[in-house]
Amino acid sequence: MMHRIKPLAATLLIALLPATALADGTMVFGGDTYASGKTTTLDQPSPRSAFVSGLSATLDGPVTKDAHLAGGHVTVDAAVAGDLYTAGAWVIIDNTVGGDVSAAGYSVSLNSSAAVGGNARIAASEIDVNAPVSGSLLAAASEITINAEISGDVMLTAEDITFGPDARINGTLNYVSPSAIEIPSNVIAPDKVQHKRLTRATLATLARMTVAGEVLQDMDENGNFSDAAKSAANNQLRDDDRGNFGSLLVGFLVTLACLLLITALLLTSMPERLEKTRKRLVSRPFSSLGYGFVALSALIGAVPVSAMTIIGLSLVPFFILIVVIAWIMAYITATYALAWKAVLAIKPMSPTLINRLLATAAGFVLLSLTHYLWFFGWIINLLVVLVGLGAIATTCGKRMIERSMRGDEANAESEPSGQEHPEAKTPDDATETPPKTQ
Length: 438
Description:
By secondary structure, the chain is an alpha/beta fold. It has two domains: 2-199, no CATH class; 270-403, no CATH class. It has helices spanning 2-15, 17-21, 203-208, 211-216, 227-269, 271-283, 285-308, 316-346, 353-369, 376-418, 427-432; strands at residues 25-29, 32-42, 50-59, 67-76, 84-93, 96-97, 101-110, 115-116, 120-123, 126-129, 137-140, 143-146, 149-150, 154-157, 160-163, 168-169, 173-177, 193-197.
């Protein structure tokens, strides 16, 4: 799917640049139609391809070739003879598309008044397919609802998959989900369905996926499993369980080692700044939490804002990288500060590098265990990140203010020296100078 997303992003970036030059308006260049603005509605026919961008982007005019739309709220109300490429928070397709559909967003809906002549490739949090698709359907989301006929093959990745009364799949169905779902026989024949789990949910599933599991399902003449089959299956399950646990343990240890390495680098390279941040966090945790919420909102908000400017699409990967780095740094800083505070409260210790790293390692382990707490685990880790990010933001803000004040003071001190050269006196001024007395 990535080889389809990259052309989509590149096309939106390059082709919408002429429209952004207009700020708000419509332009026809080389037969292609470009439109941009805060609330953009392209209602004129496009002799070739159409490119629409805006906070709200709507296509109301028919397009002879391909259509490209990007914005917060994207609506396609006109027919597109070629392919449709669209990206936005909410994407609604209400008319026919002669070619393929490539869509990405938070919510993507193919309404019943629409139709797709080719393949459909959709990535979102919520996907509703109520329009017939003549080709194949490739979709990835948290929730997927299908209530139309799909002529080709279907591949789905979702936590929740729902089929409506009008759902039909003429090809094969491959879906990946945490658990198998019940698919009505009128949607697709059972022998054309293949399911893969995201995780190894049960040992029985593991058994069926292995050679030992296949042996386990073979019965003897009396309808009982043979002892050899049971033994082989149990051994296979134990091996899989040990392998799964071993891989998880190795992954955790590698992650812990990387986090401790970053912590050690911070403690040795910038001890004063880290100490100021730690003191700020432990002395004012609630204000740090509030500042962290504001800082994280600003960082994440920079991603869609830069994308909506179209020109800033090329900077989106850098903003995402900044968000990831800030998240990791905040998590490490908060874990170190809270763990060291807890250790000192239990037993005073000398602030050596080894002692602080051991305390931080214990903090990482305890926070990793909170992931197993239902519902509250991710909230605890999010609060830790917010507190750390708020402490970092306030410390950096104070440092910037101090630098600005030092600069103002330096400028103020330099002003008198600049006035030590008064204007040259005129001859009249010279005559007015009283003579010196003997």
